[in-house]
User: Which sequence fits this backbone?
């Protein structure tokens, strides 16, 4: 207990917002009104706000107080926030017989050596229990008043009314807090305490060489960084474009490089994940583009056109073949995007890889399923040649099973795609042409005899195959009509392709399904039933439900089905194996060589999904052979979604759509429909990128920082000077593209109510 | 009657008056606000500036609660704050405001107008310096207004602020002079301490309502105020102003005496502590530094203390009378918490002027500027300076 028969000088250390100044005033009032003492309570008033280290002073004396200066040699030091011990010289000047009170959950013995008499009180816990302030900034003053009254030998009962009257809010909670603290304060006396010989304060810094004007010194001396309770930091978030690329391509990066005219680097960026930029630039549904945040401002960035340009521009790019460094040999069955991607990855890692292809030419579905007017064969040839140039061996016209390969390789990857068309419920194989087979024959052999000029052709289905078949029929002189059982919204085909088909004049009968077929005079009478949409099915799309009595008939010369595809089980020697991504061994008892699976036969139906699948399987095979753990690369947790973008900092700018030609005469015209954009337009289009989640050095943070705590470093990057950053968060709020985040590690608590923080 | 006691002033009211006071722990700013209320001010103009803001905030609070019967008007600047007081005071109302630092500088032109229009405005100024930007204790702002024609008091405690505002209305209205009551930033404005608040009746008896006079606005007798005054009579305005100013020192002492009789607390233009024929050094101080100096002086029998409470007009007679008894070799050391852009601080200048022809040597110390703490150690350091040493400076800076 502190002797109060003479003048007692108290110095307090707290953070702005904890209520220390009010606490000292309350104590002054208690000693004045209840004990008739002379009192002085005053803060060292700075320009500080919430969180800043502050000091306040209290004098109580039975006699007149003849001093008005600050307190340098206090009898009692009160520390409201334990964290201040590291930041400010809180123990300075404490008298030899002095007393220390610390808001801490630790026992007083923990602070041995700091004072003769040491008290601790868990004021933060007491205050939070009484719902005073938040965990980030608890208002601990009432609890500290209670503890101080105990130390000063005062009576808590006498003080209650004054505490209730003087606190700005919650009188009962504050009184309860003070009372609890009064009873919980813990004491430790160190009879052998000796003050530190050299004092506790660090040696005074060299007096600066003052010159007039010397504005930098008075301003920089106050390192306001220690006011911070939350820190901002530059931290990239994943962009939605990159996040949505099944191949894992760093879309934001290659678009940025393109905007700077760095097309070679952009190509290398794409090639890290995707060896088919020119192909994907043409046929990919571009999930990146579909999820582009710019859609919420004006129009998506035309990433497809940019990718196509980069692919075409680097047509002559010379890849350097990597040397073979491992003895293990790998067989890949199927030369589609999954097989070739996996083969290239493994070859570059140093394995010898052989790809087996049943057809005369490599490319899989890219070769056999996509018509030339969408993907000219020379584009495909060029990208496959590059893969072969890097050392991947491709053996064509070799239809193999895993049994044939078993034992000859260290690993087998099956990636044969889905080239068998599903059957309709009506008609025989003679009556109904399989759409995927129809496209394959035309693409591989260059001719077909099934469709004659003038034929009316009914195409059943709503996927890309149906659309490609219909547009091909058009180019063969036929008259196609697509029958699809749901609406355009549910169509799995790429939206742009549907658009183009309709523009070319392909009629699509939505909400229709064929239910009967009859041959009549060498033609077919097709019975069509109308449908309506019911409840959603497993795919999430609304289920088509037949409309009773709505049947009607149409006459058609030909009927082509395109309602789904499935893998050819030949590769598994005819065994019905449920193909799925990754290793399949457990299903293939007896085989010596481990078998892996990838591509369309495992999951997904687009080129880019197959590429992603190929990347993954290559990683898994390499890990297996090198006896390492493999896990699919994790997706970024936080994405710079559109709600995080400050659209007001971007100017609306019209986009540059891909030019599409609709030929006047389709017959035998397989010329590419979609065109490319010129280089200057590509640079302009790439320049429309919002840079979601990545700093693009716009300088908004630098302009807005009220403390000039943001600077440009030697590498011209924006950086935060944490000596002065008060953690106000304005930079986080004003960053256009969500590239500055709160540092969760430096955050004291998630609970933070501004209202409470500003309570006095 | 002058107060030259060598003992410190008794702060506690006399026992017979104690029951008519309420003891409160108050900040200097609160004391100023309550003094305005007790003086029955009817109009307050307001513009916020640290460290004064809580004065007008507390007034606004009391008015909103119906405890203080006055109008408060939020103005768009300090220039307007004081300009509006001209009009309000001309109607015969008792008016008040408070400002600080840059606010006072901004009002400078209007301060002249108020004084020379002879309006009994009372304003508190919480002292802070000009530039570099700083909000802490310093008297440069009010010192720089010393030639505007206002009376200036510098207070030492919250109690003195309260008591001085009440006395100021008596002085102001009697002599038609504006009065500035100055308190130190934070050392007084934000320091909570014991204050004895007199009951309203005591204040009403001491400071009755402002009289209606012919020079105020009267709707039945329209007049023009503040028009052009030609060379033929301009100097007459100044001369009359001067005549009133000449009475202020004596009036201050008289009021202090009357206040003591009514309230039990003595005040005067100056206060002397431990000054006699044996005194070797006299510290001359104003405001909060005085309190700390009292403590130091109590340890040094050979050192005296002269507190200047009335700074404008400078209480020459009172100072001379205090020094009448001291020996010729007693040193006069002035502590200046102001920098008037001169080789000497304002206090030293005034003291030199007052002591013209007096043989005692006069020295100056710049201390406590921009809020630098003046501790008892600082004052001890000042006392250790050998001003008589050959080549010693007449003016020094201490930190």
Assistant:
């Amino acid at each position: 207990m502190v002797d109060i028969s003479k003048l007692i000088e108290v110095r307090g250390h707290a953070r702005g917002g904890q209520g220390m100044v009010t606490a000292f005033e309350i104590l002054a009032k208690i000693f004045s009104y209840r004990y008739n003492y002379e009192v002085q309570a005053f803060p060292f008033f700075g320009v500080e706000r919430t969180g800043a280290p502050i000091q306040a002073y209290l004098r109580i004396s039975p006699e007149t107080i003849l001093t008005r200066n600050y307190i340098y040699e206090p009898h009692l030091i009160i520390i409201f926030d334990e964290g201040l011990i590291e930041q400010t010289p809180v123990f300075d000047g404490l008298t030899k017989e002095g007393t220390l009170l610390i808001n801490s959950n630790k026992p007083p013995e923990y602070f041995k050596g700091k004072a003769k008499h040491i008290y601790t009180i868990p004021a933060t816990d007491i205050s939070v229990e009484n719902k005073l302030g938040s965990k980030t900034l608890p208002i601990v003053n009432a609890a500290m008043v209670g503890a101080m009254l105990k130390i000063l030998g005062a009576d808590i009962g006498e003080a209650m009314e004054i505490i209730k009257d003087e606190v700005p809010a919650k009188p009962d909670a504050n009184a309860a807090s003070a009372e609890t603290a009064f009873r919980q304060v813990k004491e430790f006396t160190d009879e052998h305490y000796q003050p530190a010989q050299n004092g506790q304060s660090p040696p005074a810094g060299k007096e600066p060489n003052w010159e007039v004007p010397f504005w930098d010194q008075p301003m920089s001396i106050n390192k306001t960084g220690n006011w911070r309770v939350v820190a901002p930091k530059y931290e990239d978030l994943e962009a939605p474009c990159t996040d949505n690329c099944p191949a894992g391509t760093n879309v934001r990066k290659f678009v940025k490089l393109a905007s700077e005219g760095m097309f070679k680097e952009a190509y290398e960026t794409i090639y890290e994940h995707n060896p088919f930029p020119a192909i994907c630039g043409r046929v990919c549904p571009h999930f990146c583009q579909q999820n582009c945040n710019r859609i919420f401002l004006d129009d998506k960035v035309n990433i497809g056109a940019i990718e196509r340009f980069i692919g075409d521009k680097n047509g002559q790019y010379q890849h350097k073949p990597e040397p073979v460094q491992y003895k293990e040999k790998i067989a890949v069955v199927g030369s589609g995007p999954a097989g070739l991607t996996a083969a290239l990855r493994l070859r570059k890692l140093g394995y010898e890889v052989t790809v087996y292809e049943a057809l005369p030419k490599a490319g899989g579905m890219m070769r056999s399923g996509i018509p030339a007017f969408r993907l000219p064969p020379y584009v495909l040839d060029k990208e496959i040649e590059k893969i072969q140039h890097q050392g991947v061996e491709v053996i064509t016209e070799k239809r193999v099973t895993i049994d044939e390969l078993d034992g000859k390789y260290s690993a087998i990857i099956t990636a044969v795609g889905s080239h068998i068309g599903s059957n309709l419920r009506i008609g025989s194989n003679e009556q109904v042409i399989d759409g995927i087979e129809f496209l394959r024959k035309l693409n591989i052999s260059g001719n077909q005899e099934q469709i004659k000029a003038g034929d009316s052709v009914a195409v059943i289905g709503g996927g890309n195959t149906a659309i490609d078949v219909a547009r091909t029929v058009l180019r063969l002189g036929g008259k196609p009509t697509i029958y699809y059982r749901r609406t355009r919204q549910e169509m799995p085909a790429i939206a742009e392709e549907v658009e183009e088909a309709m523009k070319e004049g392909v009629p699509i009968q939505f909400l229709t399904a064929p239910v009967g077929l009859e041959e009549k005079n060498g033609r077919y009478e097709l019975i069509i039933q109308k449908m309506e949409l019911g409840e959603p099915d497993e795919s999430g799309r609304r289920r088509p439900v037949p409309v009773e009595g709505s049947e009607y008939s149409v006459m058609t010369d030909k009927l082509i089905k395109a309602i789904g595809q499935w893998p050819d089980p030949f590769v598994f020697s005819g065994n019905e194996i449920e193909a799925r991504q990754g290793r399949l061994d457990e299903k293939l008892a007896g085989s010596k060589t481990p078998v892996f699976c990838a591509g369309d036969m495992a999951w997904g139906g687009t080129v880019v999904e197959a590429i992603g699948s190929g990347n993954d399987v290559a990683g898994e095979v390499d890990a297996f052979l090198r006896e390492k753990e493999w896990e699919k690369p994790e997706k970024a947790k936080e994405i710079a979604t559109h709600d995080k973008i400050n659209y007001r900092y971007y100017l609306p700018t019209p986009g540059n759509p891909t030019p599409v030609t609709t030929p006047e005469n389709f017959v035998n015209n397989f010329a590419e429909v979609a065109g490319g954009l010129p280089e200057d337009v590509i640079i302009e289009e790439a320049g429309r990128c919002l840079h979601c989640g990545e700093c693009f050095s716009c300088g908004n943070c630098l302009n807005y920082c009220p403390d000039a705590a943001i600077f440009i470093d030697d590498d011209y990057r924006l950086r935060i000077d944490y000596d002065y950053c008060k953690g106000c968060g304005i930079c986080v709020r004003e960053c256009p593209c969500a590239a500055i985040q709160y540092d969760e590690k430096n955050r004291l608590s998630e609970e933070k109510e501004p209202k409470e923080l500003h309570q006095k | 009657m002058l107060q030259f006691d060598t003992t410190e002033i008794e702060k506690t009211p006399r026992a017979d008056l104690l029951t008519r006071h309420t003891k409160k722990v108050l900040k200097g700013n609160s004391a100023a606000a309550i003094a305005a209320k007790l003086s029955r001010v009817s109009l307050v103009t307001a513009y916020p500036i640290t460290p004064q803001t809580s004065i007008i905030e507390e007034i606004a609070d009391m008015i909103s609660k119906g405890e203080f019967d006055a109008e408060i008007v939020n103005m768009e600047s300090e220039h307007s704050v004081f300009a509006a007081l001209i009009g309000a005071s001309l109607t015969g109302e008792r008016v008040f405001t408070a400002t600080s630092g840059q606010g006072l500088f901004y009002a400078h032109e209007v301060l002249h107008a108020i004084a020379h229009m002879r309006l009994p405005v009372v304003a508190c100024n919480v002292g802070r310096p000009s530039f570099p930007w700083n909000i802490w204790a310093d008297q440069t702002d009010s010192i720089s207004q010393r030639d505007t024609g206002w009376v200036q008091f510098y207070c030492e405690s919250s109690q003195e602020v309260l008591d001085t505002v009440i006395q100021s209305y008596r002085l102001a209205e009697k002599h038609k002079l504006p009065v500035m009551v100055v308190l130190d930033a934070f050392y007084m404005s934000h320091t909570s301490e014991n204050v004895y608040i007199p009951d309203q009746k005591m204040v009403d008896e001491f400071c009755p309502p402002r009289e209606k006079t012919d020079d105020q606005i009267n709707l039945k007798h329209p007049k023009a105020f503040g028009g052009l005054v030609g060379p033929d009579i301009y100097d007459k305005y100044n001369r009359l102003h001067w005549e009133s100013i000449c009475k202020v020192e004596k009036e201050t002492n008289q009021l202090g005496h009357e206040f003591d009789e009514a309230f039990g607390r003595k005040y005067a233009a100056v206060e002397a502590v431990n000054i006699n024929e044996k005194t070797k050094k006299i510290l001359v101080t104003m405001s909060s530094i005085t309190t700390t100096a009292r403590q130091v002086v109590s340890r040094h029998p050979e050192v005296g203390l002269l507190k200047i409470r009335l700074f404008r007009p400078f209480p020459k007679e009172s100072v001379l009378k205090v020094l009448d008894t001291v020996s010729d070799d007693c040193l006069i050391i002035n502590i200046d918490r102001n920098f008037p852009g001169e080789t000497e601080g304002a206090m030293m200048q005034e003291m030199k002027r007052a002591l013209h022809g007096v043989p005692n040597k006069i020295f100056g110390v710049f201390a406590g500027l921009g809020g630098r703490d003046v501790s008892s150690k600082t004052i001890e350091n000042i006392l250790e300076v050998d001003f008589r040493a050959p080549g010693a400076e007449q003016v020094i800076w201490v930190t």
